[in-house]
Amino acid sequence: MSHIKELNISPVGRVEGDLDVKVFMQDGVVTRAHTQAAMYRGFEKILVGKDPQAGLIVTPRACGICGGSHLYCASSALDVAWGTTLPPNALLLRAIGQATETIQSIPRWFYAIFATDLANKKFANKPLYQEVVKRFAAYVGTSFQKGVTASGRPVEVYALFGGQWPHSSYMVPGGVMCAPTLKDITRAHSIMNHFRNDWLETVWLGCSIERYLEIKSWDDMLAWVEENESQRNSDLGLFIRASLEFGLDKFGQGVGKYLAWGTYLHKDLYQKPTIEGRNPATISPSGFFDGKNYHEADQKQVREHVTHSWYENQDDSMHPFDQPAPSGSLNSTILENTDFNGKYSWAKAPRFMEYAAETGPLARVIMAANPANTSHQFQDPLFGDIMDKMGPSVFTRALARVHEAPRLYNMINKWLSEVNLDEAFYIKPEEKDGVGWGATEAARGALAHWIKIKDGVIENYQIIAPTTFNVGPNDSQGNSGPIEAALEGTEIEDPHDPVEVGLVARSFDSCLVCTVHAHDEKTGKELAKFKL
Amino acid sequence: MANVLWLQGGACSGNTMSFLDAEEPTVVELITDFGINILWHPTVGLEIGHQVSDLLNSCLKGETQLDIFVFEGSIVQGPNGTGQMNFFADRPMKDWVKELSEVAQFVVAIGDCATYGGIPAVPPNPSESTGMQFHKRDKGGFLGSGFVSKGGLPVINIPGCPAHPDWITQILVAISTGRIGDVLIDHYHRPKTFFTDFVQTGCTNAAAFGEKIDGAFGKRGGCLFYEVGCRGPMTHASCNRILWNRQNSKTRANHPCLGCTEPGFPHHDLKKGSIFKTMKYLNVFPKEVPEGESKLGYYFKAGMHKVLPTNNALKASSK
């Protein structure tokens, strides 16, 4: 066990427990990586036998960062199971809730989780390093407090309709609980305007939202950076220049396959919720991209593997509707004592069409570039071009995350303007037995809930979170999960401070603390261990 | 100057997210202006890896003074009491918690999971979760009913799912500014300053409660106690006095109070018929009545209200 002599500012991104990563290296290059999720609460098991609506209260508490996204799924799954009718206002207010939670997460993730790594000493000899440290260092960076403070504003809008953030349950089968008044709508516009003036246009873009949205290609993006001093020196301009200078576009590729459930169900296209009718009704489009072609994101194609997961009562490659409630009773082990040929994680390994698939903002913007998108859906060719010219990387993934903010800002204002104060917000549904599926895009990727209701109680409830897709272990065929794959081939400059591993994992914004153990492939000697 | 260590067990980070939304002071101001030194926090901590376990060991040895130990999330004891369902820095988290609680001046449990066990502890409680010094309503929990920290107080409980950012920051400021003597705690170890009044105190629908006017989802005005299970009259918390996210509260947004600052949360263990519905006897009499009222007395009063010739139809407020 060697001692790490010097450590840099490196905040920890943790939501749902601990994730450990074991990294094997040879000649400074990662040859193999295994992820280990190290905490179990058994939420799905708790839900069995409870009131059908229990998921509206329980599932947001699966994750305090994506609580609103869980609520979006839980209410949607019940809408399908009960065959509710949704008034347009309800779909608008749910979309506004989802979008404000997601846009909140963008500055919070960028400043508190990701950008502080750019201040790592690894980059100290680069020309832009001093400026990066001045702006992005934790707590003391000139942009750090601005960004973290600004991140609290959009969820004030969430609170206007949901009562509070995090952990409201205002989305219910049949619509929403609230019945906002004129002042709620006008105040929401005003709060978002603050967010734009305090951070989005001034600190982040250095230009108007309209100008930024003119960018359609990677060349446009580079031209935008150099167009004037204001854009060049904005936080986004600096982030792009520093990323290219620091080489963040050169590693962290991943599995090259992407899945998005899509989200923001259009107010006029999903009055009668069904599983089949959902995907065409999304505004942020769904899809599965295999590296060459787009396919439909059909939930029937989801399977979960447990060969390497600490669950014992189910077979590999089962669809969530067919799975039993998990029973975590196998003895888990600490990383040092883990045999990676056996079971090594509390996460299952989800697969789509039997492929490991990356979920997250990069998957979403790839779907937005699909030429087949319809007129009510996002149509944004930018990341189609970026994937062709640069391919996936730590930088591409991070750029995708921040690229969503300007468009979401406009959407939130548009949806607010479409709320009709004279029409219904809720139509009381009739409770019955049945099956339902609800999905959305949490800030960090595709989230879905599967519910079965029998004899008036929950018979089975299955959740697959984006982090499960991204950090899941090997499947029964021995194929790596997305983060495991993204780590392979990464060059580690200083094995005592493998910041590159941190950057890869954080580019996925994994909802877990990761403890990375770097091992020398030949001697098996542990070189470094640290939290991500 | 107060050294604060914040760890998470069976947690969702909801209290951390809530904490990051704090306004007066902001988290950054808490650190720069109020002498709070965050030794480590899972989301905003600067140390990584062995620096964290070294730091924890340094606290245990007394080399680093641990003024306030904050814990978020349940204590995961499963499977079979081993704690192996929640490893942290090469050990079951519960072992760290036990030892750190013994060296800390004050121990603060934040959120329902840390205070009472919360949602993870709902039967069948697959992770064998419990709270720091309570399991639901029963004193004891993980540290035991007799636990007293070095500073002479039991675990200070700041419940809520999540706790309001003010409840967190003001208590931290109180301790760091030497006002711990003003922090009075109630039967459930909650600071009385926040948990004496009810959620109903300041609810904009309180008049409708008095006049027995039913509200409903998607309606403006009316009281949610009678049909959709609002727990505002029997839940101690200041949600309608200090508001959330500077804007609103659940009940002001026509969202029934879920009673999340009380140890019964989630109430009735989420059983059939208990979610967003008022549980009743004979479909008439609410099973739970406002705190401080006898059931019969309340039924009599409410019944008189219902039959007296008053106009108690909902007059919806303007859009």
Structural features, described:
The complex is a heterodimer of chains A (532) and B (319). Chain A is an alpha+beta fold and 532 residues long. Chain A has 19 helices and 16 strands. Chain A has a four-stranded mixed β-sheet with strand order 2-1-15-16. In chain A, strands 5-8-9 form a three-stranded antiparallel β-sheet, covered by helices on one side. Chain A has a three-stranded antiparallel β-sheet with strand order 12-13-14. In chain A, α4 packs antiparallel against α6, α5 crosses α12 and α14 packs across α15. The longest helix of chain A has 27 residues. The N terminus of chain A is likely disordered. Chain B is of the alpha/beta class and 319 residues long. Chain B is 25% helix and 13% strand. Chain B has ten helices and 13 strands. Chain B has a five-stranded parallel β-sheet. In chain B, strands 4-8 form a two-stranded antiparallel ribbon. In chain B, a hairpin with a 2-residue loop joins β9 and β10. In chain B, α1 packs across α6. Chain B is elongated, with a radius of gyration of 21 Å. The termini of chain B are far apart. At the A-B interface, α1, α2, α4, α6 and α7 of A face α1, α2, α3 and β5 of B.
